[in-house]
Design a protein that fits this description.
With 563 residues, chain A is mainly alpha-helical. In chain A, 63% of the residues lie in helices and 3% in strands. Chain A has a single domain, classed as Cytochrome c oxidase-like, subunit I domain (Cytochrome C Oxidase, Chain A), CATH 1.20.210. Chain A has helices at 29-33, 38-66, 77-112, 121-143, 166-193, 206-238, 251-285, 292-305, 321-349, 358-381, 383-389, 393-423, 429-455, 470-500, and strands spanning 3-4, 17-18, 425-426, 502-503, 542-545, 550-553. Classes of the chains: A mainly alpha (563), B mainly alpha (276).
């Protein structure tokens, strides 16, 4: 393995590993806290969202322990309300929404474009501090009166007769929303304006198409959440009456406003995950992605359709029959672009030379879990079944399959895929694969029984249940424990690699996108000159080099022109 | 500004190829930001539309507590400031430092003028007890009942009695139009608010109009204040001669923001002040 301090232009063997890189480019805590470098900001996000994930995970464990047997175990019903609320709010607002875009996207997006940074580096740092401030309000909420409204803050409960810290929590979410908006805006402009020579829209890596769709939703949907939460805060503090029927207001309006954001937000959570999976499946099948354009367009169509389905959260909240019919029909239509992606991934796998490295394991698990999550969504889109399944564990299982099975597993796929690039270290495949498989088994055991008990009538958000459901709850709790063990193995494997991992080559997986052309870890300025872009999935462009321990560009390679 | 790599161009950030690249990126960025701003306000406009359709009579009645004259003055102040903001952009493009500083200063002065008039309006309403969220009978009586009716200058088109109140107020130029328009098909809805025949619930709903009034104008006011901060910063940079015909992006972007703030007011004024 070559180690060069100063980049040397050696055409047959590019610089693989940089000892002087962005991580040790400058020293001192302030050089991190005030950095404008997108890679460092990405790593700081990664630390922040990992801590949030851990916190949210502790709440999940507490829920499952409490539900291990019927009757109250170690919490009061009020405490249970707080624990499930904080689990949901922390996981959604602090982890899943910023997870892939802010942490992985920040590191990878400019590298994929061969750019030196995002378009607005200071705004990017500003987004990070908005995130930190939002997280600070959550910590404050946690340490003072807690929160028991559910993560949706439904009125009138959240504004009247509630003595938990609704205001500080909603203000935290307000700040997190603006963090998300500015990240999306930054990425949108970066993708538009910072592409390297030769990267037309149809040579844009699919990760960037996904981030582009995400940015559209962040920019168009999140401001509505912002104003909704401001109104909620005004309602709680001053009692302005907007959501209070006693003063001529309408609490259902809050639900409309909230879901006008929060349904696109569901796709803000899953679209980046799909984007990661498109990269990983192609790289580890050593094959050109199948149906590039269809995957790219499906990302944008999901982004646009996501604005037209918010009403399906309110089928039983006094919606008119006509409105429910329309929302139900549009909800079904979102299944089409989602299915397009799944079929294209499967077609990419077909006759590929599939390597079961850790990122690929996660990607395959993702396809399994997301398919279950997506198909069970159809039951909820059907009006007649939704009336029965609404507010049962079926819904809980459905969105955990999509948000955890989908987004979390894709986050891990991306984290392992880009880990060598971000840290310059290779993790141990053995322990990481083990962690992945244990987590997968644990996850299915935790959530599949919830489909069954949900369809048998177990309502969500209840602190206690009838003995009939005991078996399912116990399976679920055991599964959660196994999932926890799996995640601990994953964390152990990654952290250990920082200390004793092998040095990573520039391109360990044989991917053809641009970020693998700079050394691992990249230097402060990424690239001296933007590299010329080619087809991002032309895997023939790189070949294995034993000496380097990674892939290097094929000399004199002329791409086959497809039309 | 730690990362500048272009020696002779102090404000060209290192990751852009040239000034045009930086300007184009900034322009797309500010437009995207303005889209988020429109959507940010859209929630309030949506709430306005819903509640106006739910309680048309309440809106029609309550809006008469707003001072159309002050609102109109503020509208023209903002339109003037938009002109000077656009003018400042032109000055920056042509490298006219003095004119740039002058136009920015006028824009800032207009912004302060707008906030000053807004302060007068708010303080008058608070004095009358029209405070957001305060919807007790007391407040309604205080604001619209007999003792304060003259100060609020209410026009209540009811035979004879309405004429008196109208004469006492006398601030509205279009009183007569109100009286005529209201007298035709909404006469039964426009009884005086302190009339014991008026439904108590209806009275409470009056608060919803003022909630929306305060939220919309308040959020708009916050945007004006932010605009002042940005414009003062730009003025200080303009005085130091930072802007050149090749580097005037910040002026352009701030002016775009200012036009949007202006435009939102252009919608707020008729929607809130000119109902009927």
């Amino acid at each position: 393995m070559t180690q060069v301090d100063v980049p040397v232009i050696a055409p047959d063997r590019p610089v693989q590993h940089l000892d002087h890189n962005y991580i040790n480019h400058s020293k001192g805590i302030l050089s991190w806290l005030l950095t404008l470098d997108h890679k460092r900001i990405g790593l700081m996000y990664l630390a922040g969202i990992s801590a949030s994930f851990f916190l949210g995970g502790l709440f999940a464990m507490a829920i499952r322990l409490e539900l291990f047997a019927p009757g109250m175990q170690f919490m009061s019903a009020e405490q249970y309300n707080q624990v499930f609320t904080l689990h949901g709010a922390v996981m959604v607002f602090l982890f899943i929404i910023p997870g892939i875009p802010a942490a992985l996207g920040n590191v990878v997006l400019p590298l994929m474009l061969g750019a030196k940074d995002v378009a607005f580096p200071r705004l990017n740092l500003g987004s990070f501090y908005l995130w930190i401030s939002g997280a600070g309000f959550f910590v404050y909420t946690l340490l003072t009166k807690g929160l028991d409204t559910g993560w949706t803050f439904y009125t009138p409960y959240s504004t009247t007769g509630n003595n938990t810290a609704v205001i500080s929590a909603t203000f935290g979410v307000f700040l997190l929303g603006f963090s998300s908006i500015f990240t999306g805006l930054n990425f949108l402009v970066t993708i538009h304006k910072m592409r390297p020579p030769g990267m037309t829209w149809h040579k844009l890596p699919l990760f960037l198409w996904g981030m582009y769709g995400t940015a559209i939703m962040q920019i168009l949907a999140t401001p509505v959440l912002g104003i909704t939460l401001l109104l909620l805060i005004m309602e709680s503090t001053l009692g302005i009456g907007i959501f209070d029927p006693n003063k001529g207001g309408d609490p259902v309006l809050y639900q409309h406003f909230f879901w006008f954001y929060s349904h696109p937000a569901v796709y803000i959570m899953i679209l980046p995950a799909m984007a990661v999976i498109s990269e990983v499946i192609a790289a580890f099948s050593r094959k050109h992605i199948f149906g590039y354009r269809m995957i790219a367009y499906s990302s944008v169509s999901i982004a646009l359709l996501s604005f037209l389905v918010w009403g399906h959260h309110m089928f039983v909240s006094s919606e008119s029959t006509l409105a429910t019919l329309i929302f139900s029909a549009i909800t079904f239509s979102i299944a089409i672009p989602s299915a397009i992606k799944v079929f294209n991934w499967l077609a990419t796998l077909y006759k590929g030379s599939v390597a079961l490295n850790t990122p690929m394991l996660y990607a395959l698990e993702f396809i399994w879990l997301f398919t279950i999550g997506g198909l069970t969504g159809l039951f909820l889109a059907v009006l007649s079944t939704d009336v029965a399944l609404h507010d049962t564990y079926f819904v809980v299982a459905h969105f955990h399959y999509v948000m955890v099975g989908g987004t979390l597993f894709a986050f891990f796929a991306g984290l392992h895929y880009w880990w060598p690039k971000m840290t310059g270290k290779m993790y141990s495949e053995t322990s990481s694969r083990l962690g992945s498989i244990v987590a997968f088994i644990g996850f299915n055991l935790a959530f599949f029984p919830q489909f069954i008990m949900g369809s048998r009538g177990m309502p969500r958000r209840y602190a206690d249940y009838k003995p009939d459901f005991e078996l399912f709850h116990q399976l679920s709790s055991v599964g959660t424990a196994i999932l926890g063990v799996g995640l601990a193995i994953v964390a152990y494997s990654l952290v250990r690699s920082l200390f004793s991992g092998k040095k990573a080559p520039a391109n360990p997986w044989g991917s053809a996108t641009i970020e693998w052309e700079c050394p691992s870890p990249p230097p402060h300025h990424n690239f001296d000159h933007p590299p010329a872009a080619t087809d991002p999935y032309d895997m023939e462009r790189v070949e294995w080099n034993e000496e380097v321990g990674g892939y290097v560009p094929v000399q004199g390679y002329r791409p086959v022109v497809h039309h | 500004m730690s990362d500048h790599g272009h020696g002779d161009k102090p404000f060209l950030a290192h990751h852009f190829e040239d000034e045009d690249h930086q300007f184009d990126s900034g322009k797309l960025g500010i437009w995207a930001f303005l889209v988020t701003e429109v959507l940010f306000f859209s929630g309030l406009f949506c709430a306005y539309a819903i509640y106006r359709s739910m309680h048309p009579d309440v809106f029609q009645y309550a809006a008469q507590a707003l001072d159309t004259k002050l609102g109109a003055i503020n509208t023209s102040v903002l339109i003037l400031s938009s002109l000077t903001a656009a003018w400042a952009v032109r000055n920056a493009q042509l490298g006219q430092k003095k004119a740039l500083c002058l136009n920015l200063a006028i824009t800032i002065a207009c912004a302060f003028g707008f906030m000053g008039i807004k302060y007068l309006e708010y303080s008058h309403k608070i004095h009358l007890g029209i405070i957001p969220g305060n919807s007790t009978e007391q407040y309604l009586d205080g604001a619209f009942g007999e003792p304060k009716a003259e100060q609020v200058a209410f026009v209540v088109p009811q035979e004879g009695e309405g004429e008196e109140q109208h004469a006492a107020g006398g601030e509205h130029a279009d009183d007569a139009a109100h009286a005529e328009g209201g007298g035709q098909d909404h006469a039964h809805e426009l009884a005086p608010w302190n009339d014991p025949a008026v439904d108590g619930i209806q009275k409470q709903n009056l608060a919803i109009f003022f909630a929306i009034y305060y939220c919309m104008t308040g959020l708009h006011g916050i945007h004006v204040l932010l605009g002042i901060v940005v414009l003062v910063w730009l003025l200080s940079r303009a005085l130091r001669g930072h802007f050149t015909p090749t580097y005037y992006g910040p002026i352009d972007f701030a002016a775009l923001y200012w036009h949007l703030v202006d435009l939102i007011w252009i919608y707020l004024f008729p929607l809130l002040y000119l109902i009927n």
